[in-house]
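Reopening this one. Same input as before:
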Amino acid sequence: MEAIETFLDHLSQALTSQQLSKLTLSKNRSAQSDLKNVYARLVLIKEEPHLSCTLRFATRDETKNFHLTQATAAINKWLTEDFRQAELFTVSEQTSLMISKKGKGLLRSRAIATREPVSLKHNQQKQRPLTERPRPYLTSLGIAGQDGQILQNGRRKFRQINKYIELISHLLREQPLSKGARIVDMGSGKGYLTFGLYDYLVNETQLPIKMTGVELRPDLVKICNTIAEQNKFQGLEFIAGDIHQYQPDGGIDMLIALHACDTATDEAIAKGIRAQAELIIVAPCCHKQVRKAMQPPVTLQPMLQHGILLERQAEMLTDAIRSLLLEANGYKTKVFEFIGTEHTPKNVMITAIKSQPRPEALEEIKDLKSQFGIERHHLEDLLVKMTN
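Same output, byte for byte:
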C-alpha cells in the first residue's frame, strides 16, 4: 500500500536522523485482539540507538526493542496485520496514517512547533540518590573497585541500593524524620542497604541520625563495625542479636526489617508499634505459621489443592492481616512489590506511616480469619501481650 510505504519512509528518515519524538499505533483491526496500542520512542542500548516499543495489552504491558535496521520492518508488520492508525511525531512534524476497513490508506503531514532534539543520553541514564563517586564502604563491600568505580558484577547490587533509597526517600517526604532520629535495621546482614541508607541520609541530605543494624551472625557484625569505623560513620553501629530478643536502647523512629524469616517479621512489627515508630518498613520472607493453620473454604479448594497456590494464598493472607493490624494500631499502610523477582521471589514490602487508628480493621481481620479457618496470627498474639 502506497500510504503505508510513504509513512514508513517518514519513519525511516526520523530514525536515521534521530529526530523521532514518539510513535503510536492504535485502532486494532480485530476487536477480539488483546493488543490495544503500541507506543515507541528512541533509546540507547549498549551505545546503539534502538526503537523501544511498549505493547499495551488489556491486562499487561510488554517492551520490545528493535535495532534501527529492524525497526521499520517491525512497524510495517503491525500496520499491515494489526493496526489501522498511526501517529508519528518528529521534532518539527506530525505525520498521521489512517487505514480504512477496505484497506485504503490516507496520509497527512503538518508542521508543528519545533521541539527540543531527542536526547538519547537522557533515555539511557537515570539520576540516582547515590551517584557513582568514590564511596570507600562500597569498595569494602565488594561493590566498587579500588578506584571507587562500581564493578560490573556490583552494578545490580548498586541499583538495588538506589532503588531502596528512592523508596525510603518517598516515604520521608510524607513523614519526615527529625534530627537525631533513631533508625533500627533488624536483620541487617552484610549491611549493603544499611550503609547505603546511612550514607544517603547523613551525607546527601545532611540529616544527622543514629542508626543500628541488628544481625544474628557475630562475624558479619564485626566486619560491618570495622567498615563503619573506617568510613567515620559515627552514628552507625552494628550489634549481634536476635530480632526476637532485641530490646532497643531508647526509642525507635524508623524500624526496618527486610527478609526476616516467618514470625521474626511479626516480632519486628510489634517492636515498632510498641515504640510508636513514625515509620515501619518490612519485607517479609517465609510465611509458615499461617499456612500450617489454614483451612480454606470449600469454594477455594479446587484452586488451593496445588501446593504453590496454597503457599501464595498463605503469603497474601499473612501480609494482609499484618497490614490490617498496623492500621488498627494507628498506621497508614501500603503493600507493594519491592524489587523484581529476578533478585528474589520474596519481594513484597509493607510500609506503615504513623496515622490515626482504624478500628474497623479489627472486624476485617476477624472476617478473614473466619473465612480461612485461622484461630490465631502471631503478630496478633504479640500485640495482645503488649496490652496485658
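So the earlier flakiness isn't reproducible anymore. For the record, Residues 307-328 form the longest helix (22 residues).
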